[in-house]
Write a structure and sequence with these properties.
Structural class: alpha/beta
Number of domains: 3
CATH topology of the largest domain: Alpha-D-Glucose-1,6-Bisphosphate, Chain A, domain 3
Strand order of the largest sheet: 1-2-6-5-3-4-7
CATH superfamily of the largest domain: Alpha-D-Glucose-1,6-Bisphosphate, subunit A, domain 3
Number of helices: 14
Helix content: 25-40%
Shape: globular
Length: 448
Amino acid sequence: MTRKHFGTDGIRGTANTEPMTAETALKVGMAAGHFFTRGAHRHRVVIGKDTRLSGYMIEPALTSGFISMGMDVILVGPMPTPAVARLTSSLRADLGVMISASHNPFQDNGIKLFGPDGYKLSDEVEAKIESLMANGLSEKLAEPGKLGKAWRLEDAGGRYTEFVKSTFPKGLRLDGLKIVVDCANGAAYKVAPEVLWELGADVVPIGVSPDGFNINNGCGSTATDYMCEQVVAHGADLGIALDGDADRVLVADEHGKLLDGDQLMAVVAGHMKRCGLLKGDGVVATVMSNLGLEKYLAEQGLELIRTKVGDRYVVEHMREHGHNVGGEQSGHIVLKDYATTGDGLVAALQVLAVLVEEGKPASEVCRVFEPLPQLLENVRFNGGAPLEEASVKKAIEEGEKRLSDTGRILIRKSGTEPLIRVMAEGDDAALIKEVVGDIVAEIRRVVG
């Protein structure tokens, strides 16, 4: 079954333009509400959002769709994506929805769906929901006396804050540590500073003044320069950068040097192995992760298992094969012992726990391998199939020949934006730059 609206992370697009319109959101609510209505009990859905202006449009449209199918709606307001996943299972809801376009700019928005177990839906389930959206739902509407209700859960933030704190090892505190936390003017702007402060840290919060327009704007995990500067300016021990919905995290050491998701997975997995807590003798990551991570894990007697891009595919493999650490270079860190999806704040706390236990600076603890030179460039395109063009295929083949056994090339379409991502890595940084440049130039020539 094909999917028209759903990409690698739910539905995403420019607000008030298909598929991110109130009409489509209404249909999503109706279709998902019908699909997840099973049994005679009173059904309920948890809906959270980030701080985008368009959330005010998408939230009521979804709510109306669910209510029309007889499903009660629990609104939690601006909350991290992992909080919505957690609340869905803890409140015994039948479905969870997060309204967010993650790291995208404010004009975009998205809809992510979680099943009653708190896990993102499979491709197959999303395809079935799309089929319901397309085939009409009017005959499936609830009777007037069986319409759903909606209410706000006032203590949602407190519930999530206490859960996150519970993942930090008992007996440890963050007393004496100064931490810069950049919340990207997004969903974690309240809970992230609170968690760190309540655990004892001296907190320097930035990106905590959302206005509906400034989410991810020069801040957060996709724009880390300011966070890194603030770490140095405040003499902080660590910097934490979350994205708009706080399901990914990047970290800066005390010198303001950035550490990506590969380094963080290596730190956490290595520590868990030493403590006898790592399951599956390996880490699940994507094809984007650096070869340096693979080599480091091999030296520790661990395997790096790669999936296609998208944290949902990482999680699916983890569940199927019993791994408890996985994630993406971009900062989605999935710690299955604690969460069903990437949780930037939980991951940051596990890194901080290693810092506290080892009593060493982040520059020593968190930079555990030297990454191989890697370059990623994005090419925007407007339809068509440029990767199928003979000249593009030839440029890719020539690049692969030049790298031979010393590196690799990965080229793919983004699942959330109209972009072609061209990535190469290997031993020779200059060669990598030339190879990527040649391929990108040919794609740009083709797309005009």
